[in-house]
Amino acid sequence: MEYREFCTEYMDQVRAIYEEEQWSAYLNDDARLERAFAQSLYILGAFDQGRLVGFARCVGDGEHILVVQDLIVALSYRRQGIGTRLFRAVWDRYAEVRMFHVVTDLSDPVDNHFYRSFGMKKLEEGSMVSYFR
Question: pTM for this one?
Answer without folding.
Answer: 0.90
